[in-house]
Amino acid sequence: MTSQKPSVLFVCVHNAGRSQMAAGWLRHFAGDRIEVRSAGSMPTDQINPTAVAAMLEEGIDITAEQPKVLTAEAVEASDVVITMGCGDACPFFPGKRYEDWKLDDPAGQGIDAVRPIRDDIKRRITNLVSDLIED
């Protein structure tokens, strides 16, 4: 990592569930100490309402977020790129830290199925924050 504020990009196919929940958690835990981005290889037109509801249960409001298309510029500008099932659509740049998080897709699932995904993401984010930020 550089001495500048680290930046993390979360990428999934639709940028409607997993990556949006991860971005919400990272903003919650890191505040302005980490720059947060999210994008999708084939973004939908809105965030998954069940993912929004699951995050609201934890006091995190992601309703204002919009799915965004993945660009090479977003990858290039990020220190850490975390993929969640985006496959070969993710551009690769040498010198970046890449992680692939195997997570179920919350698309089309009810709240009882989305809660464990949300909680798994939370656990991973707390580990990421402690890895990226030295207090």
UniProtKB/TrEMBL annotation:
Q: Does the keyword Glycoprotein apply?
A: no
Q: Which InterPro entries match?
A: Ptyr_pPase, Ptyr_pPase_sf
Q: Which residues form the Phosphotyrosine protein phosphatase I domain?
A: 6-131
Q: Name one Pfam family in it.
A: LMWPc
Identify the domain of life.
Answer: Bacteria
The protein's matches in CDD domains, at most eight in alphabetical order, are given as:
LMWP_ArsC
Keywords from the named record: Arsenical resistance
Q: Which SUPFAM superfamilies match?
A: Phosphotyrosine protein phosphatases I
User: Does the entry feature the keyword Cell membrane, yes or no?
Assistant: no
Source organism of this protein record: Leucobacter coleopterorum
Annotated protein name in UniProt? Arsenate reductase ArsC
